[in-house]
Amino acid sequence: MVQATQDYVYGKTKLSEEELNKARKIILDLQAENAELIEQGYGPFLAAAYDDKGNLVAKMANTVAKENCCLWHAEVNTIKKACENLKTYDLAPYNLSLYVTAEPCIMCCGAIMWSGIQRVFYSVNSADVERITGFDEGFKPNWIEEFANRNIEVYGEIEAEAGRKVLEKYVTSGKEIYKPSGDR
Ligand SMILES: [Zn+2]
After folding, report:
1. What is the rounded distance in angstroms from the CA atom of residue 41 to the CA atom of residue 36?
2. How far does residue 14's CA lie from ligand 1's centre (Å)?
3. What confidence tens digit (pLDDT) does each residue in 58-67 have?
4. pTM of the model
5. Where is 154: in which H helix or E strand?
6. CA-based diameter of the chain, in Å?
């Protein structure tokens, strides 16, 4: 079911050129903002949820180190904020797309499944996140197929080169790679 082209990973349906360009612009803007937020002490990941009319519903960065909670990944924070803004635990009626600067980890895959988010657009894949940063993304075999079974579309590797550069800078500038002590 998953189709990988030279540049992009797709779930069930291919994006039109217009949709792909829109996603590229949103992801590039997120990466630029992510780089600024890192300097303010946020973790190196940023997510944003948009409705099908293109309205921004919520945008949140990773606050694991900033707020001392291992759960506060960008996707979880954004889903929580979207639920608060829309005053619901079920985002499905709002037909939301979640844009993320990196592929969701094992926890965020679970959070996205329970949220009612309909589409996920991500930039840097988990293998590159782990290779560049040393963060652990967790075990999530066939997650794109799992999402497709739940009618959640996934589009990946969008503007990944720019995303990798932000992560590389996070590491070379000596920022914190947070994980449980004694892990591995
Ligand atoms: Zn996560």
Report:
1. 9
2. 25
3. 999 999 999 9
4. 0.93
5. strand 153-156
6. 46
